[in-house]
């Protein structure tokens, strides 16, 4: 239940009754006075006060509306599910479904990454705390993570054999972090990012010997 119309002898009483039904506080709702109410005279002509109390949308609901509006322009059949994960460090997870999911994902996830960036920017503008945003479709994020892990290990083996550094294709920071994490404990292999987003690349190279 997102809204309640309530009556009471006074506006304050009507508001309190509505808040009880919504299990909310005044900070979390918008209040519209429909009728001020009248006390009447000698018991005649009295009218109760009437208010409309509507719950304000949470940030994740606002972000959902923002994302849904965009994906609908790409695919009219598209829909979005959302959930909140974590407590201290919160993550907004949005899952897109539709008949044209491949279009929404894009080549190597480029469109999906762009959607995620847009929603992350939207959330950052409306939140004082750090909130991570993940936009997924058809479990693409997990599949991409698995392919990046394979790429990281194969590339590292090639670097060890050829003794030459290899630059990977440009990718967003969260994908570079996946590869960096996989290779962190690999002997004799180092990783570093070069360039500016969105063309920033990860270079896999041999660890330079420490000069003593």
UniProtKB/TrEMBL annotation:
Localization terms from the record: Cytoplasm
Record Gene3D superfamilies: 3.30.300.20, probable RNA-binding protein from clostridium symbiosum atcc 14940, R3H-like domain
Record flagged with keyword DNA-binding: no
UniProt keywords, alphabetically: Cell shape, Cell wall biogenesis/degradation, Chaperone, Cytoplasm, RNA-binding
Domain R3H: 142-208
NCBIfam families tied to this protein: Jag_EloR
Record's function text: A probable RNA chaperone. Forms a complex with KhpA which binds to cellular RNA and controls its expression. Plays a role in peptidoglycan (PG) homeostasis and cell length regulation.
Subunit record text: Forms a complex with KhpA.
Entry remark concerning the domains of this protein: Has an N-terminal Jag-N domain and 2 RNA-binding domains (KH and R3H).
Similarity-based family: Belongs to the KhpB RNA-binding protein family.
Protein name: RNA-binding protein KhpB
The species this protein was found in: Gottfriedia luciferensis
Gene: khpB
């Amino acid at each position: 239940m997102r809204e309640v119309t309530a009556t009471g002898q006074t506006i304050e009483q009507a508001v309190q009754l509505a808040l009880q039904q919504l299990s909310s506080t005044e900070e979390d709702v918008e209040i519209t006075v429909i009728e001020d109410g009248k006390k009447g005279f000698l018991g005649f002509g009295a009218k109760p006060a009437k208010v409309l109390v509507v719950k304000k949308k949470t940030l994740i609901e606002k972000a959902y509306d923002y994302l849904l509006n965009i994906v609908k322009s790409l695919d009219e059949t598209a829909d979005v599910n959302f959930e909140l994960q974590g407590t201290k460090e919160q993550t907004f997870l949005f899952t897109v479904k539709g008949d044209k999911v491949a279009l929404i994902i894009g080549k190597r996830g480029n469109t999906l990454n762009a959607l995620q960036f847009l929603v992350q920017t939207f959330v950052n503008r409306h939140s004082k705390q750090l909130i991570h945003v993940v936009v997924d479709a058809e479990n693409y994020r997990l599949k991409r993570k698995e392919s990046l892990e394979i790429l990281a290990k194969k590339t590292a083996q090639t670097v060890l054999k050829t003794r030459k550094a290899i630059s990977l294709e440009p990718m967003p920071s969260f994908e570079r972090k996946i590869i960096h994490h996989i290779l962190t404990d690999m002997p004799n292999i180092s990783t570093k990012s070069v360039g500016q987003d969105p063309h920033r690349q990860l270079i896999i190279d041999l660890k330079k010997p420490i000069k003593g």
